[in-house]
Write a structure and sequence with these properties.
heterodimer; A: 235 residues; six-stranded antiparallel sheet; four-stranded antiparallel sheet; 17 strands; 0% helix; B: 92 residues; mainly beta; three-stranded antiparallel sheet
Chain lengths: 235, 92
Amino acid sequence: MATGFKVWTNNGSILTIDESYENLSLHSSGSAQTSAATPGASYGLYTLSLSLPSAGIPQLALRAHDPSQYIGIVGAARSGGTYTFLIRTQGGPVAFDWYVFTIPTDIAPSTVGLKVWRPSDGRLVFDTGMKWMRVAGQLLGADASVGLADPTRTYAVAYAAAAMNQTRQWQNWPETNPAVVDQQTNIIGARVLGGVLSSMSMRVDVTQSSPGTPADIGYISNGVAAFLALDITGY
Amino acid sequence: MATGMRVWNPDGSIKFEVTTRLTRLLGSVQTGNQDGFIDIPNQGNQIFFFIISIDPAQPTRGIPVIGISGNRLSWTFVENVRTACTLYYGLW
């Protein structure tokens, strides 16, 4: 450690904040509300667009005002410096807060507190005035849960990996008029309730007759759902 | 707070506090379009996490399934369509 400091903690570990420290910090936050669910789309929908000054990692975290509600994202798109996140809730409308963390070089430093610079290039790597990303738990997969160490804190769910899938199946011969298509969509949402991070597969079935097929929500994807519980107490 | 560090604002409110854990990013790895893994160096009692970043210009179909076993972070493609990702990993 050329520059920086060490912190001895309650659990006996030593945390080193030196010139090699890297983390994301809070860039912006706000509140929004998903749309009302309809018989044809029983998700609540919201599209969040944000302008970020660089191509750094934008890490989105969400917290429904009613923490019993599950909330998820379908994916993200980027056009220039604008990132667009497609947010879904099971049912709606659901009010929520959003938090975007990114690399600290994109965030104005504070004027009070303690800072650490990297000697090699003068980059500010740590600033006690920044609202750092604080991971408190991780969860993989749908319909799973994990307890967090301190249920008294306030948490938002960050989306380490979004996963959803969508399938369509003809319910009669395509040549039949009207053709009937069943579309099944699973989006994995998550919540923190009572100090437990849990996920749930939010499934929506839509059956529609021709002309036309059920509206495509735009993404057909797989992978694994992964969530981080972020401690946003005081943020 | 028995041990740790706190920084206060001029008005007396707490600006920064660390008493147990500290999140930090360690690095990143490109998955390419082949299955693979990376072993995260053991860092005492800290637990590692990951974040997948997909090039927004790429289709979201065909991203790999991520697995965690011990200190190993692995990725497996399960579709014919394979979309390369960047995996960021860190400790908390």
